[in-house]
Amino acid sequence: TQKNTLLQKLKKEERLMTQLPTILNRRQLEELFPNPYDSLGPFDSIDDEEIDELIKAENEGKKVRVIGRYAQVNVQQRQDIPPLYIGHTAVDLEDGSGIFIYPGWHPNAIRSQSEIARYENQRVVVVGTVVPKMPKNPSYPNAASLIGPCFLSIDSIEMAR
């Protein structure tokens, strides 16, 4: 019975995984988080519920599967000096865009050396919650920060098959 319970759990997780949106490039990310004003004509309107739903998704994120190349990121503000890699990472997508693994200020943004050694420059599948725009550091809301999509949570990182 324990074996059956485990098999049922695995099947449930597999169904969930196949239902997740898959992100391979920036276009797919933009389709997942559409700008409500892009498709409006001069006399079109959008109701408040639609706007609220889009804003909620943009702030709270959506659970997705992202497939791309795991890479360390140089998070220095100045790009005219040699890069400094201290453990920040991203998933580089097929079109050259990328999704940061956590906002740069988040404690989980600095990934473990063992994770970096295992996945760096490898094609990976990352499952987690993504937002289209990295949130500002709540402790320093006026400070400069990186711009771009990022994971707010990570459920798993695995080698892509």
Report on the architecture of this protein.
- The protein has 161 residues and is α+β, with helices and mostly antiparallel strands.
- It is built from four helices and six strands; from the N terminus they run αβααβββαββ.
- It has helices at residues 2-19, 26-32, 48-60, 113-119, and strands at 22-23, 62-72, 89-92, 98-100, 123-131, 150-159.
- Strands 1, 2, 3, 4, 5 and 6 form a six-stranded mixed β-sheet that branches.
- A hairpin with a 5-residue loop joins strand 3 and strand 4.
- 20% of the residues are buried.
- The mean pLDDT is 84.
Q: What would the keywords be for this entry?
A:
single chain; 161 residues; alpha+beta; 24% strand; globular
SSE succession: HEHHEEEHEE
Structural class: alpha+beta
Number of helical runs?
Answer: 4
Flag low-confidence runs: none
Sheet bearing the most strands, described?
6 strands, mixed
Strand portion: 15-25%
Mean pLDDT equals 84
- The global form is globular
Counted beta strands: 6
How would you sum up this structure in a few lines?
This protein has helices at about 1-20, 25-30, 50-60, 115-120, and strands at about 20-25, 60-70, 90, 100, 125-130, 150-160. The chain is of the alpha+beta class. Strands 1, 2, 3, 4, 5 and 6 form a six-stranded mixed β-sheet that branches.
